[in-house]
Amino acid sequence: xxxxxxxxxxxxxxxxxxxxxxxxxxxxxxxxxxxxxxxxxxxxxxxxxxxxxxxxxxxxxxx
Length: 63
What we know:
Blueprint lengths: L12 H13 L4 H22 L12
GO biological process, one term: regulation of DNA-templated transcription
Pfam families: RHH_5
InterPro entries: Arc_rbn_hlx_hlx, RHH_5, Ribbon_hlx_hlx
């Protein structure tokens, strides 16, 4: 398993309470839930970035 890096997260108390409830619903720790959400967001971002045309490359409609 890859080594994990610890860091401090400052978060609003209301947001933390919601994350705690959500994590409990999905049988995860709060840390596990945050990691799951971040990985999901990164996966979607990479997929979206890969499907978008490169802004530096002319598209067929630019010619």
